[in-house]
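Model the whole thing, not chain by chain.
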Amino acid sequence: MKLKTEFNDREELIAYLQETFPDAAARSPEISETPGGRKAAEAALAQIKPERYAATRNHLNGAVTHLAAYLRHGVLTLAEARRAALLRGGKQAEKLVTEFAWRDYWQRVYAQIGDGIWKDRESLKTGWRPADYAEALPDDIAQGATGLRCMDGFADELRQTGYLHNHARMWMAAYVIHWRRIRWQAGAAWFLEHLLDGDPASNNLSWQWVASAFAVKPYYFNRDNLEQFTDGVYCRDCQHYRNGCPFEGTYDELQARLFPRADEGAFKR
Amino acid sequence: MNDVLVWLHGDCLNPHGPALQAHADAPRVFVFDEALLTQYRLSLKRLAFLYECLLEIPRVEIRKGDVAAELAAAAREYDCSRIVTAESVAPRFAQIRAALQREYDLTVEVVALEPFIELSSTEAARLDLKRFSRYWNPLKARALSLNQSFDW
């Protein structure tokens, strides 16, 4: 079936998409403000600041590039992005070029294992068996109704914008897998529904990394870490801050709580 | 007669992509893969993003349905026997490519994209993908230099 290609404006396009893809519109009707297209990709590429990126990338307000969606869909190539980063940043571009390399790496793994990206690459180092993890993503997580300001904020942002900062993705994934003990595949599928840059290889293999199915140990975090890289914007108004924040504690305390059966050796840094 | 039909897919939506550059006058078709949309439950914002990327490609034709069947229908309509497209590592891409050849007797030619780093096939085959660091350490110096081909 042929679809329309002439539209007067974005509104008209959106109305047409709602009609043309009614299932998607019924499930998640939100539209992102991030525009698609080569022009927008080139504009984003012109804005990259490799040196600032290296210094601030872990912070939610850091100078991240917002190139991922364009790279994922081949609107830009990694080669172009690499050249632009080196021209702009010289030696200071190392961090940014390394991040681009992650995408090249994930694609190479994808070429090798194909749909194997949906299966554990290695056994888990968490002390839990695969069967200990629930199959489905609970609604409170997807709907942003856990009561945890940070996780609910991330879920809302994901649904509204189709984007999450990399650090927020890591925290969210760790919460889903390690705190709620849900199979990483359920979280990965949820991200793929919404992320404009959702790439099965980058996404799933990163979830596997958090889960410890593609890493020597699980990734987890504590409140100090989240608070530091968010300037405390979520913690400030969270009802759980002084009362039962599940992320509060030292890494050793959290390890004992989350992975009581894990082999100690796996956690030695 | 055009002969060539350019198949655009979600791994290469660049208006200056290599398949479009090599066949600037050819009809170009993108198909929303209905089975995949259902399987991945893609949200409307993802489809809108793809659509906006597509609308910047001159003379693009957009369809939805079964990808191989729609491409074959377009090939018949434009009297094309060859399909040219950009490379993709997605298993779904390989399935569709095989179906075009097997079920519709269309030749599919896959064009390489400019690589992140130029590697010989021997080098590429030798890469250790067990961990990122093992892949990256031998490539890093080259990736961080603008003149990666030592062409003097």
